[in-house]
Amino acid sequence: MPSQVRSAAPAQVAAVYPIPPVSAPPCDQVEPSTIATLVLQDGSSYQGISFGAETKSISGECVFQTGMVGYPESLTDPSYRGQILVLTFPLVGNYGVPSRETMDPLLKDLPKYFESNEIHIAGLIVGQYSQDYSHYLATSSLGAWLKEYNIPAIYGIDTRAMTKKIRSQGVMLGKILFPTALVGPTVVPADEAWMNEYQNVDWVDPNERNLVAEVSLKEPKIYSPEPSTALMGPHGKPLRILAVDVGMKYNQIRCFVARGVEVKVVPWDYDFNADTDYDGLFISNGPGDPTMTKITIAHLTKALQIARTPIFGICLGHQLLALASGATTKKMKFGNRGHNIPCTDMISGRCYISSQNHGYAVDVASLPENFMELFVNANDGSNEGIMHKTLPIFSVQFHPESTPGPRDTEYLFDVFIKAVDDFRKTGTLKAITMPGGTKEAAAALNPRVSVRKVLVLGSGGLSIGQAGEFDYSGSQAIKALKEEGIYTVLINPNIATIQTSKGLADKVYFLPVTPEFVRKVILREKPDGIYVTFGGQTALSVGIKMKDEFAGLGVRVLGTPIETIIATEDREVFAQRMLSIGEKIAQAQTAVTVQEAIAAANEIGYPVICRAAFALGGLGSGFANNDEELAELTSRAFATSPQVLIERSMKGWKEIEYEVVRDCRDNCITVCNMENFDPLGIHTGDSIVVAPSQTLSDEDYNMLRTTAVNVIRHLGVVGECNIQYALNPFSKEYCIIEVNARLSRSSALA
Hints:
The two termini are 19 Å apart. The strands form seven sheets. A ten-stranded mixed beta sheet has the order 12-14-13-15-16-21-20-19-17-18, with helices on both faces. A seven-stranded mixed β-barrel has the order 1-2-10-7-4-3-11. It folds into four domains: 35-208, Carbamoyl-phosphate synthase small subunit, N-terminal domain (Glucose Oxidase, domain 1, 3-Layer(bba) Sandwich), CATH 3.50.30.20; 212-426, Class I glutamine amidotransferase (GATase) domain (Rossmann fold, 3-Layer(aba) Sandwich), CATH 3.40.50; 453-549, Rossmann fold, CATH 3.40.50.20; 654-750, 2-Layer Sandwich (D-amino Acid Aminotransferase, Chain A, domain 1), CATH 3.30.470.20. It is of the alpha/beta class. The protein is 25% helix and 25% strand. It holds the Pfam family CPSase_L_D1. This is Small subunit of carbamoyl phosphate synthase.
């Protein structure tokens, strides 16, 4: 990854005309589009097609963000104040913008779907803008919403090239210029001849302003939990968190109030040391250079000296806490802005995927002796968190409240609230306790497996154009094993695959992937371990049939245990496992005869879907509208499977898939997700799929992502797996269809 160390400013490039748009407006657009120009401080310029406000030219700091969803939340995040935001995701606007009038049922007078009451970016740059949108909550297009807040936006810019420029040269100032014929005369003289037709403006560096003072609320405000959920303190009142608003996102308030604590939000310059009516101190996220917020730093310095309550900081709050402790901060070359950034817990060794938005970082080398590093960025090594060694004081650079982004680290609110609750009960301040144990304990619980020879069950006979992902997964597994110096044996009868290519596996047996031949190869080769999860359904079925033989043959099953594979393949066992953790599956019953299937369907009510267990590629599955259709369908299903699942039909719902990877130490990520072009009712193997999903909002996307991670952890999958959902297109109702304890197409696509 490119270094985040800032270098000298690049020299101005030779004057050239702007690069024209890389895309065109819609063919059916009647009115001509406005061509605006993005000008960067290095002298380069790019024309784009306007889809936002067209009232004036603007200037700001040009930064990029790598999130795939969540533009309504990002654009209303106060941390983006004064910045021209480049979204790297190529197609933006697909799911429109939700209602601005709908209020949050928990916070009453705050909007439900946004992170503040206004858009804070100075301008928006995207590759391609979708004027059509599809989502049941959408009330307008992205362009219409931007116009409401007078925010310019352009598309047709090569955002990949723009991102590479910022990564190599660092963040730089930019301008979005509009023609004088549209917005009026120029403000400052043109820098180049071509600018004479544009309204030019001065360069504006937002970091030179006190942006926090611009975005912070002006008067204190209290948000209370429902009485039934309130976490009461020994004083007979709900525990109160005093939250210093230095650019606070609304979801931070939601995360506290939903956990039963009262939140008193105060302005950035509020003297919280003079206020004794609170149980814990919280410092929010916010925009700009942290050293500009001198009043807050002074108050925090005194609070650290007094050490009266637990303290928790997020993002800018993290930087302010570090500065108050005596540490220093530094401006990063291009910062970290996105929803897929890995951070490692320095205590447990666990890695979490986080949401981030910052251009400054704490210099960990400058931390005082009584503080330690809590999290580190796994990409660039920058600091992501600190904690006091003896007091309940800690902070993180990333956003555990997400919105947008993954919810993996939301548990940090529980860590803080527990510290506050313990303090009020005991009267003693002590260092926070992080979940997950220590690195040493994790290593002892899950020691590295020592194997010298591994047998890989390959993809078997494949039809042209089908199941290529299993060839892909097996090939990648063999490459990884060879990198570890492990002798690799492959069974695969198909010579027309990558994994059977000369020089990949150390030895290849061109034999059918069946228990009989697998047994013979094991006896001949005497491997230490075997993988059954890289050959699709064929390999899984062999693993299940031979589960009681492996120990006697001296072979250890690597990756996902056979018991977990059975739990995902046996429809009844799977349903019970999901219900045990309160997850949503369709109303269903298992059957082993045609008569049982018909009885189940009559109890559930037609139409129903019949799913065959332990079957290849959906064989024997389909929809039935009456007893006759179901009898015919199940008769075919029982020819290939001993069991079927009869479940409520969700025909017409969206079908969504997530590819999940988990290791033996419980690090868990989603590699990719997919959205079927066709609604539920057409087998995924016969459908067009789009990766990643296109019509899921941030809440939809991360609701299903969080569920996927929880399910895979509960089942005990080790390695890759695929989870499929049915999602109601008119609500957030979803059902888990199935889990495949193996790789699927989404990993190959990713």
